[in-house]
Design brief:
Mean pLDDT: 90
Low-confidence stretches: 434-438, 449-480
Distance between the termini: 39 Å
EC number: 4.4.1.14
CATH class of the largest domain: Alpha Beta
CATH architecture of the largest domain: 3-Layer(aba) Sandwich
Bound molecules: pyridoxal-5'-phosphate
CATH superfamily of the largest domain: Type I PLP-dependent aspartate aminotransferase-like (Major domain)
Family: Belongs to the class-I pyridoxal-phosphate-dependent aminotransferase family.
CATH topology of the largest domain: Aspartate Aminotransferase, domain 2
Pfam family, one: Aminotran_1_2
Catalytic activity: S-adenosyl-L-methionine = 1-aminocyclopropane-1-carboxylate + S-methyl-5'-thioadenosine + H(+)
Protein name: 1-aminocyclopropane-1-carboxylate synthase
Oligomer: single chain
Number of strands: 15
Number of domains: 2
Helix content: 40-55%
Structural class: alpha/beta
Shape: globular
Length: about 475
């Protein structure tokens, strides 16, 4: 008899993806300015640590909020006993108002259509349970957040079918890519239940254009399917073009069937930098989805003291205004620092306007245009340069050589050090290594518009995601 269930032992969780393996490498040898200055710098974690001081000064000025108190009197017992899965009304009201503020108050949200969840992770999985059966499919544009393999597929049995987007148009979603994905799913006998997008995108750091949003709404209308827009990074948009939420575009669809088939996922993990607090939400116009998701939210509620704290924080409009503005300014500065640091190393990245990361083009540093070569480069960057960045293959990118590099989870000094290490690596590898194509060669080939060979995702061997035994040996000798 097998001791554990198939679900517990299957590997669709994605734990062995290089995205998560990179975190392990970092944890074995974490950089610390004083205690471990030669350690690995974590650039594979989309955390926002830039505005903690603003949150901390609000907490100092509002001690009741975190101290289980209202008007100076303890509400400890009230909070300790509260267990209604509909959530604290004050928290839901404050959260929908915050979501509207991020959208320039061009849309309003009804708190009765909001379901609180333990982060976006729980929100996305709950929506899968509500909208699809095991074996049915959702279409996702590539590259996508590696955690989706776990969040959408693992426990629900729902399949992800990629919508292949490429660098030829800045990884934009096109009608032909949508149709190709849909037909691809049909060929595999998969019933398509919807499309899921992240807006702004993780890992691209770009916002969806109005024409992409219209395209998506036309597509789900034609195919009679759902659209989930994960807008977890909506408050991180730091430069133009601004953020347009699908809810804004949906205003033109009131009284149509599509109105009920668009759902938003949100969380405070990125915009407020609070992933540890586990505050997420589903917003849907469909009463049945709201009712089902509310029942399911029993498995991932937000604790009542967190809801209490958040309702006080988010209903302070002076705070939210100041925070959103200042946080976006800081993200903009950091983004600029990273882009300029990369430029000094003659590395470019996709033009972006949001998020906590850049989508970096390291194709010039590949030996060959393959995912094996991407893995080889990734290992060099992790082991030799000692930076943990996320390879595009872990985000299901169809073109080898792209990497997601995070910039908001470290100090300025650490980011500068990371850029110095990278620059040295690029200089050394392009001058010393005869196997490496030089950057000049790359750029001249690029300018002469040589067609690049884009390997099909389905042809990428499994080993690309795992460490070979040789690497494991190397890793254990590296461990402190
Ligand atoms: C697009 C996207 N969705 C969901 C999540 C999960 O967020 P949470 O911490 O709110 O569960 C992340 C985290 O990185 C993300 O990037």
């Amino acid at each position: 008899m097998k001791p554990l269930s198939r679900k517990a032992t299957c590997n669709t969780h994605g734990q062995d993806s290089s995205y998560f393996l990179g975190w392990q490498k970092y944890e074995n040898n974490p950089f610390d300015e004083v205690r471990n200055p030669n350690g690995i710098i974590q650039m594979g974690l989309a955390e926002n640590q830039l505005s903690f001081d603003i949150l901390e000064s609000w907490l100092d000025m509002n001690p009741d909020a975190a101290g289980f108190k209202r008007d100076g009197n303890s509400i400890f017992r009230e909070l300790a006993l509260f267990q209604d899965y509909h959530g604290l009304p004050a928290c839901k009201k404050a959260l929908v108002e915050f979501m509207a503020e991020i959208r320039g108050n061009k849309v309003t949200f009804d708190p009765s259509r909001l379901v609180l969840t333990a982060g976006s992770t729980s929100a996305n999985e709950t929506l899968m349970f509500c909208l699809a059966e095991a074996g049915e499919a959702f279409l996702l544009p590539t590259p996508y957040y590696p955690g989706f393999d776990r969040d959408l597929k693992w426990r629900t049995g729902v399949e992800i079918v990629p919508i292949h987007c490429t660098s030829s148009n800045g990884f934009r979603i096109t009608a032909s890519a949508l149709e190709e994905a849909y037909q691809g799913a049909r060929k595999r006998n998969l019933r398509v239940k919807g499309v899921l997008v992240t807006n702004p995108s993780n890992p691209l750091g770009t916002t969806l254009s109005l024409s992409e949003l219209n395209l998506l709404l036309d597509f789900i209308t034609a195919k009679d399917i759902h659209l989930i827009s994960d807008e977890i990074y909506s408050g991180t948009v730091f430069s133009s073009p601004g953020f347009v939420s699908v809810m804004e575009v949906l205003n033109g669809y009131e009284n149509t069937e599509v109105w009920n088939r668009v759902h938003i996922v949100y969380s405070l993990s990125k915009d407020l930098g609070l992933p540890g607090f586990r505050i997420g939400a589903i917003y849907s116009n469909d009463e049945m989805v709201v009712a089902a998701a509310t029942k399911m939210s029993s498995f991932g509620l937000v604790s009542s003291q967190t809801q209490y704290l958040l309702s006080a924080l988010l209903s302070d409009k002076n705070f939210t205004k100041k925070y959103l503005f200042e946080n976006q300014e800081r993200l903009k500065q950091r983004h600029k620092m990273l882009v300029m640091g990369l430029q000094k190393a003659r590395i470019s990245c996709l033009k972006s306007n949001a998020g906590l990361f850049c989508w970096v083009d390291m194709r010039p540093l590949l030996h060959s245009n393959t995912f094996e070569s991407e893995m080889e480069l990734w290992k060099k960057i992790v082991y030799d340069v000692r930076l943990n960045i996320s390879p595009g293959s872990s985000c299901h990118c169809t073109e080898p050589g792209w990497f997601r590099v995070c910039f908001a989870n470290m100090s300025e000094a650490t980011l500068n050090l990371a850029m110095q290490r990278l620059k040295k690596f690029v200089v050394d590898s392009t001058t010393n290594n005869s196997n490496n194509r030089s950057l000049d060669h790359y750029y001249s080939a690029k300018n002469s518009k040589k067609k690049s060979l884009i390997p099909k995702w389905s042809l990428i061997p499994k080993w690309v995601f795992r460490l070979s035994s040789r690497d494991r040996d190397r890793e254990s000798s590296d461990e402190r």
